[in-house]
Each structure stands twice: as structure tokens, then as C-alpha cells.
Amino acid sequence: MGRKFFTKMISLVLITCMMVTLFAGCKKEEGKETVKEDTDNKKVTEEIDPFGKYEEPVTITAAIRTAGTNQIPFEGSMWDKKFKEYGINVEIAWSADASQFDNRLNTSIASGDIPDILPGISAQPMSTLVRGDMVYDVSKVFDYLSTTNKKWLTTGAGADALDSVTIDGKVCIIPTNVTDLINNCFPLFVRKDWLDNLGLEIPKTIDDFKNVALEFTKNDPDKNNKNDTYGLTIMGQTNLIMDWGGLYGFFGGYGVQPCTWYDGMLFYSKDDDGNVVWDGTRPEVKEGLQLLQDLYIEGAIARDFPTMDGVKVMEDLNGGKAGMVFGVRGLPMWAINKTILNDPKAEWYAMNMPTKDGSHAPIFAFQPVNTGYAISKKCKHPEAVIKMLNIATAMTDPESPMFNPDFRDTTVSGPSIIGITNPSYERVSNESLFEALEKKDKTNIDKYMVDNYDKVMEYIDTKDPELWRFWNAYYPEEGHAWYLTFGLNKPDMLKKNEWWALPTDSMLSYLPIYKKLAEETMTKIITNNAPVSDWDKMVDEWNELGGDKITEEVQNALK
């Protein structure tokens, strides 16, 4: 007894010492000293304070992407005043709304006169700025990052994002709007009530998937004694090889990805010999196209799919005509949410695309940076930009002692100029929602998930069809889209693109050619107006028009 008591006391003392050390370390990280070299290459000690105020105010110039005529001007706004508290005066160099922003940005870049901060820039201007050596190496002022921003940018999804914008050891962009790579899954949504009506199981293999598509087409799955249903709906007019309603999720079943990501990028992987190849050259693409052609011939894909847009696809889904579609986790909220209003027995089931052997399909992961902030190489106080980022995070992060909810509402606080979010926030907050729903206790739920919790529970109690979408999206059970994404899918299912960087100039120039060629060829093959072997002809043509050049760039970069 005495020995156990002594052991407990020792453990308590050690834990206390560790906590004191830990908190002391955290406090020190927000204000610390580093050794650097001055202009004479002499080592000097510099005080680093991520929230340090300037005794003599400094000026930072910035561009703003405006949002409508009702937007609060930056000058005199809450953000303007907050930055001034730290001795940072922000001057707006120019502003433009979304329709004019890119033109204004390109003019600014072409003139060689960019402000200290360029916000929300996409892949093409990013590439131009980097190629023109116009941006500051952000890694030089990383010591000024607050503890929270350092964690968000250098671990997990943030680290993946930072890696993709690091060129020759220089961090060229501050990535924003980054989320966990696990978000990249494109589920297959299936009418579960139709499966039940026909005595079918959830498809586990591609053969099962084909059978379900045919049964939905030929055997009256809604039991209305009419031949008015079909298996798989495809948005052929716009999204055939990208985004929801297209075939992006379909090819996961074959382990290959000939479709493009949102920034237009192609997917590269290693073959059995370790060579990096473009997935469009893999024979499994033609296997998938053959299945789609078979389904079209059997009537399991709509005859008019090449002209179908999002409106028509949603009409067929909500109107009880189509029984399957590939999409993103948000479909229950806005694309299939009216199905239950037309058929109270309707039930959608979200799942990963089945594979040939019943194993898990990969979740294809592209470099996660679509937009970011650039700091001008001519900026005189780049560390002030990082301090602005720290202030922005501290004012908007609910976990921060400086948190003020008014700063999260730009209609109240005005434009923030700069800011990033926690890449893991959506996953972590949804995990808290799942746990709360399982325990029927929202005590410890993320406060921004309380409304979703309440609506799911209200649907369970009332079966109000207007609330069905929340239950179908969030309930922690197989078949629910958010739970599939954040509860069932695991990081080891990710298959990362071998090209993990911003698109090159060649990629940005040539990829629209591929999109047009691929869409035209896939459409002809699926509608049986061309043999599946025509895909090889398309690959040859694409390679001549730019594909070979891009693949060579990728292979050389990865040597």
C-alpha cells in the first residue's frame, strides 16, 4: 500500500512538472529569440513576437476582392482598427469584384507593380508570380507564425498543402481554404428503397453495380407498374470528367483516374515497374468505358445524357427516374433533398464505388491548394503580414482567448484582408457531431454543429421531410454521406497524385485541350458511336497536342 502511494505521488509530481514545462514552452513560443545573420553576415539575436506591436507604425498595401455593393469599406472597419492596434496600417492598393478581379490582377502582375498582399489567387496567377520571381519566400518569416497558425500550416493537410507550394525550397504562397484530403471522396448514391423492393443487396463489386443498374432500368424498382426508371444518371453537358454528376467517382472502381481535378490537373501514378505514368493510358480506363457503353445500350443510362446539365440530373433524381449518381458528400443537402417530398419512402444510400474484387476503391488525392495569398518580394515588412495572419486567426478561431465572433462576420467587421482556417476543422467538428448523435448528448459538441444535431434529432422525432436532408447527410450510420466521408473512410485509402505541386505553364495551357478531347471521345464511346478502342486514338492525339510534354515534365521533376 505504502509503495503504491509512493508511486502515485512520484507520478503526480512528474505529470505536474511535465505540464509546467509544456505551458512554459507554449508561452515561450509566442515570443522567442532566434539567431540570424545581419547584412554583414554577423550573427545577431532577434526577438520574435508573433503578436508584437510596432512602436513606429508600418504600412502594408493590399488588394481586395469585393463582394457586392453592400460590403463595408475596409477603411475605418473593425479589421482596420484591429491591425492599427498593432501598429500596422493597411492601405488598399486596388479592389475589384469577382467578375473583374482576375483581369485587374493580371494587369497588376504584368505591370510588375503588385501590392504587398495579393489575396485568393488561383493556380495560373500563382504560377506567373512564381515564374516571374515576384513573390517573397514565406519560409523566411515562419518564425513569426503563431502557435496555432504554425500547427495549421505545418502538420497534416496543412503540411501537404505547404509542400505543394514549396519550389526549390521556397514557400511561394500561403495556402488557404485547405481541407483534409479525405474530403476528396466522390460517393456513389443509390436508391436503397429500390434495392429493397427488388430484393437486392448493396453492390459490393462492379458486377453487382452493373446488375443494379440493369435491374433499376428493367424491373420496375418503384413498383408503379410503369417503365419509367433507369439506373445511372450522368451530367454529360458540363461535368462528364469533373465534379458531381460525372464519372470522377466511377473510375475509382477500376483503381484509375482519367478525369480531372477542379484545377484541371491530371492524375499520375506509378506502374508496376516504378515508372510514373498518366492514368489515362492505363487499360482499366477502357474496361470502365466498355461497361458504360454496355449500360447505355441496355437503356441504363439516359439517351439524352450528353445534353443533361445539373438541373436535368436533379429533376431525374428527385423525380424518381434515376436510381444512382456519383457526387460529393453535399448531395443530400441540395441535389437529392426533394426526393422524399415526391416519395415518402425514398431512401438514398451513400457508398464508395464498388471494385472488381470487392476491395476498397482508392480516394484520389490531388495537391490541395486552389487559392492562396502571395506576399510581394518588394514588401518591406513581410513579418507584418504574418502578424496580420496571426491576428486574423486569433480573432476568428473559437479556441483562441482573443476570439470575437463579430470578426467572423464580414458584414459586421469588414474585409479581413488575410486569413486561413483549420484544415482539420470540418473532420474534427463532424466527429464531434457523430459522437453526440450516438450518445444523444450534445454537451461536448462543436458549437457550430449544434444546429445540425438539433435538426437530425428533430427529424428522428417528427419525420419532417424538410429535415430529411440533415439526417441523410449526418447520421452516424452506413449509407450517410458525411459519416462515410469522415467516419468510415480512412487515410490509408488515399492514393496521392505523384505530381504534388502547382500546375506548370504547360499544364495550364494544354489541359483544356485534353478536357475537350476526353469529353468528346467518352461521349462517342458511351453512346456506341465509336468503339472503345477509340480511347487509344484519343490518347495518341492528346499526347501529340501536349500530353507527352506534360508527362515528360512530371517525370523529369520526379527524378
From TrEMBL:
Domain of life: Bacteria
InterPro entries per record: Bact_solute-bd_prot1, SBP
UniProt KW DNA-binding keyword: no
Keyword line: Cell membrane, Lipoprotein, Membrane, Palmitate, Signal
Coiled-coil spans in chain: none
Secretion signal, residue range per the UniProt entry: 1-24
PANTHER family the record matches: ARABINOSE-BINDING PROTEIN-RELATED, POLYGALACTURONAN_RHAMNOGALACTURONAN-BINDING PROTEIN YTCQ
Name of the protein in its database record: Extracellular solute-binding protein
Species of the source: Vallitalea guaymasensis
Source organism phylogeny: Bacteria, Bacillati, Bacillota, Clostridia, Lachnospirales
